[in-house]
Each structure stands twice: as structure tokens, then as C-alpha cells.
Amino acid sequence: MPDTDELKINYNLTKHTQMILPITAYGMPVLKKLAVDIEENNEEVQALVANMFETMYKASGVGLAGPQVNENLRIFVIDGSPMAEEDPKCEGFKKVFINPEIIEEYGEEWGFEEGCLSIPGIRETVMRPEKVLIRYRDENWQEHEEEFDGLRARIVQHEYDHVEGILFTDYLTPFKKRLLKKKLTNIAKGVAPHDYRMKFPK
User: Fold this and answer.
1) What are the tens digits of pLDDT across the range 57-79?
2) I need a surface site. Which of 25, 83, 88, 124 has the fewest CB within 10 A?
3) Which DSSP state fits 34?
4) pLDDT tens across 81-121, in order?
5) What is the DSSP string of 143-171?
């Protein structure tokens, strides 16, 4: 666990004065860190939740995690409605996950082509278990323990990876990573095409 001073720095959410936040790009250190728990629910957390949803919608995403807006915090938001044609259970699947903890992943592994707002222009097939059991707090600080399957589980797993410092490209084979090396390098340099606000490594 980080010391108290570090946690205070990570928990400084007051700088979120805009609704649309820049999305951190591949290569930003925060994307590879283990995020820390949010200790209490307050107005700053509520503001962050609102800004994350606004940012996610502006970028046409279905999920967004704290590290993707440069906050080293265990939080992600989801709205799977755009994927309802592929999985009807995604209709109205809008949730906030605070301090999430995956209890179990199970079922047959299946592949699906994933993308990420932090890695624009790259989509690759990732294998994941078909079901997930997760414990989390919602935006009202109520605790839940729920099971999700299909695309709902995949969205949750993908976003949960972000608060664990894992990117979907980490699941790719060494050969596939070599093929993507130039594209990933360009993203880290800020020369990849994108149509939403992003924050790139300096």
C-alpha cells in the first residue's frame, strides 16, 4: 500500500473542473500501476463519476477506468448499451464500480475482438472466461456482489484490468506484440489518429 502522502496525491480529484477529461494514452505510467482504493464517498468522487461518464460518451466508449483519466484510483464506469445488438443483456447495462474486487472468473474461455480508448486504432482478439463474480461499491457507496456473463463480463474484465495495471495488449502473443510494436510506439509518441482528447507521455 502507498503511504498516506502518496494516497493524498492520488486522491486529489479537485482538479477535475471540466466535464470532458483527456484520456491517457498507451505509454503513460499510470496505466501500468496497481490502482489504490477510494477511502470514502464524497462530492469529489461523485464529480469524478460524472466526468468519467461524460468523457466515455464523448469518446464513444463502453467503459472507462480511473487510470485512463490519469487517476490512480480503483474506479471504472460502464455503459454497454452500444453492444446490445451483439448481446441483448448489454441494453441498459450502466454501472459504476468503486473499489472492485473480482472474486472468481469461470466458464469456458472465448475470444472477442477488443479495443481500448487508451490504445486508439488497435483491435485484437482476447481470450477471457465467460463469467465473472465481482464485489464492488456503486456511486451511492452501496456494496454489491454480482455475476455477469457474456459481453457484460468481458467489459467488466477489461475495465477491471485497468485498475490492476493490465492492458488488453498484455494478453497478446510475443509475435503479435512485435507486429504491433510500431503502432504502439506511435501512440506513445502522440502521432496516432484519434478524435477525442488524449494525454500522451512527455
Assistant:
1) 999 999 999 999 999 999 999 99
2) 88
3) P
4) 999 999 999 999 999 999 999 999 999 999 999 999 999 99
5) EEEEEEEHHHHHHHHHHHHHHTT--GGGG
Quick check: is 159 catalytic? yes
Q: Which of 75, 70, 165, 151 is nearest to 114 (CA)?
A: 151
Fold of 4-199: Peptide Deformylase (3.90.45)
> How many Å apart are CA 140 and CA 39, to the nearest integer?
14
Residue 90 in marked binding region:
no
Among 114, 124, 139, 159, the active-site one is 159
| Cα-based distances in Å from 184 to 26, 136, 137 | 7, 32, 34
- Tally of CB atoms within 10 A around 39: 10
Q: Is 158 annotated as a binding residue?
A: yes
- Residue 91 to residues 65, 149, 167: CA-CA distances in angstroms? 20, 14, 25
Round to the nearest angstrom and report the end-to-end CA distance of the chain.
Answer: 27
